[in-house]
Amino acid sequence: MSERAPFLPYGRQDVDEDDVRAVCAVLRSKPLTQGEAVIAFEQALATRVGARFAVAVCNGTAALHTAYHAAGLRPGRTCLTTPITFAATANAALLLGADVEFADADAATALVDPEAVHRRAGPKTQVVAPVHMAGQPADLPALRAIADDVGAVVVEDACHALGAEYFDAATGEWVQVGSCRHSAMTVFSFHPVKHVAMGEGGAITTNDPDLRDRLLRFREHGITRDPAAFEERDPGPWHREMHELGMNYRVSDIHCALGLSQLRRLDAFVDRRRAIAARYDAAFADHPGVSPLVQRPGAHSSWHLYVVGVDPERRRAVIEGLHARGIGAQVHYLPVHLHPWYRKHRGFQPGAFPGAERYYESAVTLPLFPAMADEDVERVIVAVGELTA
Ligand SMILES: *Cc1c(COP(=O)(O)O)cnc(C)c1O
To answer: Could you tell me the domains of the chain?
Structure first.
């Protein structure tokens, strides 16, 4: 019987014994929720990305919903985002009763095109939500300037981009994604395929104490425990007040213990991802049939995904060929406006966002995760070479 290499997913967590011990310590002796591990995780994340505050929630979608609510997104107002993202970036706005509009993406980078954002932004735009697709930062200084012009708030969907940096020409500095230098808030996910795994988890970072209060309130039913905010005069010590509608979007100490332990290895994770991406880049550099996503000058990706473009006519055969070889190629993403729900309920048609659609038709995501062995990377390179020759 021939030896079969194990199936290689496009992404997977790397959990070590320290992570297991950290989770077990919570299970043995600590509160399982609303305890110190949540606060420790929030502080460590804020410190790592250079923001004043982080608010942890139960997943990245909840983080988007919470951030958009804090940003004042509501019926009659619009969230302007990119079609090349996970559907949650747009869905979270609709769940608040707001509208969603898309600005086209650049087919070469899969990032939202600031020119397109400029054309679409208007008086109803409340939130501009760029997505740092595959881990590469979008052009935040440009997007911030456009948002400022129409009085909108920038909320970064950085679910792909923990550990990424970009160059700020105004100050000549490299800036961490999540520091909110050019945004009001930044959203992260800690799903196991992302840079840091919590099972399920998410967070929002911000430098604004008022936004932090709004985030915390929405996370907990819109209920406040702050006596200074109470409407009731001289209430008893049991008193709590609900001032707005909210959710239970808390995340447990069990999850945060894992997140905190994983965060300690973030630099190593990102370094390994960058090394694998560099190996893919070198292998595909003189391969005319394979075009990696173009990297913008001044963007230093943290490489959540390694996406290549191939001939659209052959893409399906390439992906099926990779699957037949045990390689879990994927596609990120079907442009949001082409999902049946968006076509049916929002009236979008193919052709609406040609850059995004052109990107999608050729895109293939190859496996990339820190625990991938060098031999696995070579196996992918050989297979892609054969299937695109
Ligand atoms: C993963 C992801 C989300 C949602 O995060 P969950 O934790 O899965 O809810 C949102 N946006 C993007 C771009 C993502 O990759």
So the answer is: 17-263 (3.40.640.10), 266-387 (3.90.1150.10)
